[in-house]
Amino acid sequence: GDEMNEHLLEMHMKNHGLSNEEMARRLCIDPATFYRKKKGISDFTRKELQKMRASLELSSEDVDAIFFDD
């Protein structure tokens, strides 16, 4: 799968004052599931990516850098 940039995601979450629990709640998933996805163990769905992008006000470049990091 694609490599997750967990550090960058956490930075954006911190900037918006969002905890893992709050982010999971917004994505309607279990915090443990969010943790696994954040770690890159499993992939975020397109819908989850869209919700995170909206919550964190991410640009296309941000999304590429976080979720499709080469």
Question: What does the model show?
Answer:
The termini are close together. Helices cover 64% and strands 0% of the residues. By secondary structure, it is mainly alpha-helical. The longest helix is centred in the last third of the chain and has 11 residues, at 46-56. The relative contact order is 0.24.
Q: Which helices and strands appear, and what pairs or packs with what?
A:
Layout: H1 6-15, H2 20-27, H3 31-38, H4 46-56, H5 60-67
Helix pairs in contact: 2-3
Write a brief caption for the model.
With 70 residues, this protein is an all-alpha fold.
Question: Strand share of the residues?
Answer: under 5%
- What can be said about the biggest beta sheet? none
What is the oligomer described by this structure? Answer: single chain
Distance between the termini: 11 Å
Counting DSSP H or I runs of 4 or more residues, the number of helices is 5
Reading the helices and strands in chain order gives: HHHHH
Number of strands: 0
Q: Which structural class best describes the helix and strand composition?
A: mainly alpha
Q: Are there runs of 5+ residues with pLDDT below 50, and where?
A: none
Helix content: 55-70%
Gross morphology: globular
Q: Roughly what is the average pLDDT, rounded to an integer?
A: 93
Could you tell me the radius of gyration in angstroms? 11 Å
